[in-house]
Amino acid sequence: MTTEKRAITAEAPMGPRMSEDPAQLVPELAEVSAALFRAAGNGSVPRPTISLVQLRAGQIVGSTYLTVLHTGFLRKAGESEERITSVASWQDSPYFTAPERAALALVEAVLQPSADGERVSDDLYAQAAEHYEPKALATLMFVIGQVNFFIPIALIAKPAPGHPFNAPWN
Questions:
Q1: Which one, 6, 41, 52, 159, has least CB within 10 Å?
Q2: What is the pLDDT of residues 26-43, one digit of tens each?
Q3: Nearest to residue 53, comparing CAs of 112, 103, 13?
Q4: Which phi and psi angles does 33 have, rounded to 5°?
Q5: d(CA 7, CA 49)
Q6: How many CB atoms sit inside 10 A of residue 159's CB?
């Protein structure tokens, strides 16, 4: 079986890869999705932190849809362009608080393989626990899980970037 690669100079298509909305094809997942949104939005983790984590997840997995979506959420929330554009290089950016850095480190640890084997080390967990009460730390885990729930949709079905979150197939 041969795999064709698109030339890096070729323009990427603007429409979704999958012509039908997966949520319409498998409506049973709506309850799971709604529960994840409720868990992530329980108020124990600041909304900007949630969006920063989800933007970083989109960047890590290479999803234009998720990157554009969460960049838009951050802009609508009034976040500065400096904060938004430096998420990709947050480690040396002066624009993030210690709790935000801990959250960004956690999403990177979960989504990227570690040379040491363990993705989330005891040290990283302890650092995050210094900044988040138990409920907030659990919520942060669910925030990372929530974006991970949508990553296969973003990478396999490829919804059209720039379309509203509730209508990426329109």
A1: 6
A2: 889 889 989 999 999 999
A3: 103
A4: -60, -45
A5: 36
A6: 25
